[in-house]
Write a structure and sequence with these properties.
heterodimer; A: mainly beta; B: mainly beta; 7-stranded mixed β-sheet; 4-stranded antiparallel β-sheet; globular
Amino acid sequence: GEDVEQSLFLSVREGDSSVINCTYTDSSSTYLYWYKQEPGAGLQLLTYIFSNMDMKQDQRLTVLLNKKDKHLSLRIADTQTGDSAIYFCAESPGPPPSKIIFGSGTRLSIRP
Amino acid sequence: NAGVTQTPKFQVLKTGQSMTLQCAQDMNHEYMSWYRQDPGMGLRLIHYSVGAGITDQGEVPNGYNVSRSTTEDFPLRLLSAAPSQTSVYFCASTPGGSVTEAFFGQGTRLTVV
């Protein structure tokens, strides 16, 4: 079945890079997403990558996709206190109405 | 532009009570969905709709009903609330087609006692 797995917690020092990892099982995944959830808020799309890409960079964010290993990572350069949030990995076999399967979320905390 | 609006933000129900969680979007999006978020379990899809008059079940539909009489509104009904339905509920909408971003509401925190 479809499954998306992430570690639950990550703690990094302010100014360091954060790397959040995700694995998924559905080989038909076409779209892979990273969403961010700040306390008391809904989820906001950070970035997404198509399965025919292996890397996408957007300012401080770098997404790496290893399709063979079904592994997705999100790197946040120069992590700031405002990056504290829960980060969700998600996958979908296509655009809507394909359903999106979310991971359990990784809580990123920043230490001074 | 309000985006996706959910009401209420908080609700406490007694076991067996029924209620409706409201969701409205003003972006003319075709696709709407309801998720529940539980600690350590991510978001699980309850029901979704690909357009007015069309709904379908997600991963965890039992105990919930939905309808989509208009493009804008997608209410979620709890028929007979149970403590297992204590959760945070999120409504999301997506334009459809090749646009993939889902826009989420602020969530409804529901406690069933």
